[in-house]
Amino acid sequence: MDLIGRTLPPSLTCRDCDAELDPEGGIYVEAVGDTVRPVCSDHATDAVGVEVERRSRPENEEEWDEWYVITSVPNAG
Length: 77
Hints:
The chain is mainly β. The chain has strands spanning 7-8, 27-32, 35-39, 48-55, 66-73.
């Protein structure tokens, strides 16, 4: 599954334990249907390693609003 261009919520926290994830160097995500959810390395059983970049939507240029997947590494989990 191609995750490049998919969005993540503004807060990068693990869906299982609510740990804050540091996007520097990449994070793990799980894709379920159209939903991409961040997970920590402890809970990354079926996850994909990705690099993310924070962007704002055109209507909200002053605030960072979403994380976008810019690269993915299959089977990194």
